[in-house]
Specification:
Elements: H1 2-31, E1 39-53, E2 58-73, H2 75-85, E3 89-99, E4 105-116, E5 129-130, E6 133-134, E7 153-157, E8 162-174, E9 177-191, H3 203-209, E10 211-223, E11 230-243, E12 252-261, H4 263-311, H5 320-325, E13 328-329, E14 338-339
Antiparallel strand pairs: 1-2, 1-12, 2-3, 3-4, 4-5, 5-6, 7-8, 8-9, 9-10, 10-11, 11-12, 13-14
Helix pairs in contact: 1-4
C-alpha cells in the first residue's frame, strides 16, 4: 500500500511541477488580454494656467483648465479587425476635451487607437486616426504591456503624430503601490491646429490669419509594472500660436499649465488597477510558484513513503503445510491428542 500511495503522489508531483511553467509561459500570454469593451473617463486639471482668448487673440490667466479624456472600447470594430487580421485586437475610440473655467470648449481631439489585446503593439488596421487624420502609430499609447520592463519604450504623441522614447526613471511608491516612473519631453514642434475650436474657428481660418501652432510638453507617468496601466499622469504643457514667416513677432501663448489628474480619479484608478493586478499575479506568480512548491512537497512525500516501504521487515511467510503440522488432532478414543504426521511431498 505504501508503494502504491507513493506512486500516486509521484504522479501528482510530476503533474503540478509540469503545470507550473506551462501556466506562466504558455497559458498567461494567451489568457491575459485587455478587454475589448472597456469604458473609462479621466479628468485632469491645470490650475492657475494661461489660455488664449480667440476673440482678441490675447493670452489671459485663468483659474483652471479642465481636460477630460474619455476612452470607449469599440467591440464591433474590434471584431471586424480580428476577422481581417486574425489577431485579438482592441479598438479604443477616445476623446480629449479641453474646457475653460466657464466650461466652454477650448478644443476637442478624437482618436482611434487599434492595438493587440495581448502585447499592446499597435495594429495598423481599422481606421486608426488622430482628429480624423489617418496615422500609423509606432510604439505604445495610453497603456504599457503586461509585466513592464525597466527600460525605455517608444510612446506615441497625438499632437505631433509621431513616436519618441519615453524614459524609465526608476521605481517609486505611489498610493501604496510599487510603480515604475517614465518621463518624456517633446521639444518645440510645429503641430496641426485642432479641427474643433471656439467661435467656429477652423484650421484654415487660423492659417489665413497667419498663425501656426507650436507645442512642447514634459510628460510623466507612474505605471503599475504588473498590469502596465498608468495609475497617475501629469504634463507640463505649453502651446504657442506663432506668426507664419515672421519670427520677429512675439508668439501668442495659447495654453500653458501643469496638467494633473484630479485626486478622486487618481483614487479610482489605483483601486481599479489594484483589483486587476491580482488576476495577473495569479497567473504569473502565485499559481506557478504554488504549483511548483506543491509538486516539490508531493515528490518529497512520495520518496519518504518509498524509503519506509523498503525499510519495513519482511512479512511472515508460513506455508499451509507448516500450519497443518502444528494443528493437534483430537482422539475420540479417550486418548491424548496426537499430532498429525508431517505431510509428505507429492
Amino acid at each position: 500500500m505504501r508503494r502504491r500511495a507513493g506512486l500516486v503522489l509521484l504522479a501528482f508531483a510530476v503533474f503540478f511541477t509540469t503545470l507550473s511553467p506551462l501556466l506562466r509561459w504558455y497559458a498567461f500570454p494567451r489568457l491575459a488580454k485587455v478587454p475589448a469593451g472597456r469604458y473609462q473617463t479621466v479628468v485632469l486639471e491645470a490650475k492657475d494656467a494661461t489660455l488664449i482668448d480667440y476673440s482678441t487673440l490675447e493670452p489671459k490667466k485663468v483659474s483652471r483648465i479642465t481636460m477630460t479624456e474619455t476612452l470607449k472600447g469599440n467591440v464591433e470594430q474590434a471584431r471586424k479587425v480580428k476577422h481581417e487580421t486574425g489577431r485579438d485586437v482592441v479598438v479604443w475610440d477616445t476623446l480629449t476635451y479641453v474646457a475653460g473655467p466657464d466650461g466652454a470648449m477650448v478644443s476637442k481631439i478624437p482618436e482611434r487607437y487599434v492595438f493587440d489585446a495581448h502585447s499592446q503593439e499597435p495594429v495598423h488596421a481599422g481606421g486608426e486616426n488622430v482628429d480624423d487624420t489617418p496615422v500609423r502609430r509606432d510604439g505604445i499609447e495610453f497603456k504599457w504591456p503586461f509585466l513592464v520592463r525597466k527600460h525605455d519604450y517608444r510612446y506615441f504623441d497625438m499632437q505631433t503624430r509621431t513616436s519618441a522614447p519615453i524614459h524609465y526613471g526608476g521605481t517609486r511608491r505611489f498610493h501604496g503601490l510599487s510603480v515604475y516612473y517614465f518621463e518624456q519631453t517633446i521639444p518645440w514642434t510645429l503641430v496641426p491646429v485642432p479641427r474643433a475650436l471656439p467661435l467656429g474657428l477652423t484650421p484654415d481660418a487660423v492659417r489665413q490669419i497667419g498663425l501656426e501652432r507650436w507645442y512642447t510638453t514634459k510628460r510623466m507617468f507612474w505605471v503599475d509594472p504588473t498590469t502596465g496601466a498608468p495609475v497617475n499622469g501629469e504634463e507640463v504643457h505649453q502651446e504657442e500660436m506663432r506668426w507664419t514667416g515672421h519670427p520677429e513677432k512675439k508668439p501668442i501663448t495659447a495654453f500653458s499649465g501643469h496638467v494633473r489628474m484630479r485626486p478622486d480619479y487618481v483614487d479610482a484608478t489605483v483601486a481599479l488597477v489594484t483589483s486587476q493586478r491580482r488576476l495577473v499575479l495569479l497567473l504569473t506568480s502565485w499559481l506557478p510558484w504554488g504549483f511548483l512548491g506543491l509538486g516539490g512537497a508531493l515528490l518529497g512525500l512520495a520518496l519518504l513513503l518509498e524509503a519506509r516501504a523498503r525499510r519495513a521487515p519482511p512479512a511472515a511467510n508460513t506455508t499451509a503445510r507448516d500450519q497443518r503440522a502444528l494443528v493437534p488432532e483430537i482422539s475420540h478414543d479417550g486418548g491424548k491428542p496426537k499430532r498429525l504426521p508431517p505431510a509428505r511431498d507429492g
